[in-house]
Specification:
Blueprint: E1 16-19, E2 22-23, E3 32-34, E4 37-41, H1 42-48, E5 52-56, E6 59-64, E7 67-71, E8 77-82, E9 85-90, E10 96-98, E11 101-105, H2 106-112, E12 116-120, E13 125-129, H3 136-147, E14 153-155, E15 162-165, E16 170-173
Parallel strand pairs: 1-13, 14-16
Antiparallel strand pairs: 1-2, 3-4, 4-11, 5-6, 6-7, 7-8, 8-9, 10-11, 12-13, 12-14, 15-16
Length: 174
Amino acid sequence: FHISTAEMGGTAGETGIILDGAYIAFPAQKPQVTGGVTMAPAKELAEAFGGTVRREGSVLAVEAAGVTVRLQPGSAQAEISDAAGSRTADMGAACYESGGAAYVPVRFLAQTLGCDVLWDSRFGAAVLLPERAADETQLEAYYAALYESDGYFTYGVAADDVLPLDGYGFYEVS
């Protein structure tokens, strides 16, 4: 038994983002891979985490799960404020605006909010696991339940260079 992209709420051929076993809906602007990094509209991504996005002048403030991330379009730096304090972090890619939406690096935002991020090559989607998995056994259980089959995915987003991890069908960026 294999579940299809459509059955999970996604659209075949489009880059998707899966959270809690279902695709996040992006009604207007869609996620895209830019320079090898999966980028997504900040508003829909934040809302999927129960958060909000607001403008503070030219800065975009994303709030979710007790964390505030301030982003400046055109910059790869972000200011993170949470229970541990405030700090600046490199997002690995600059956020940008396109078609009226502010795009953010999916892996950076999801990891900042406490998720593991994987790339599922079968679905062409970034998979966000809401709680960081302690080991591959937890990941295997998640995917066995989700797909009822062997899933193929990679740590990181849009990675080309991957290695098998412990024969589970899981792949890790080398």
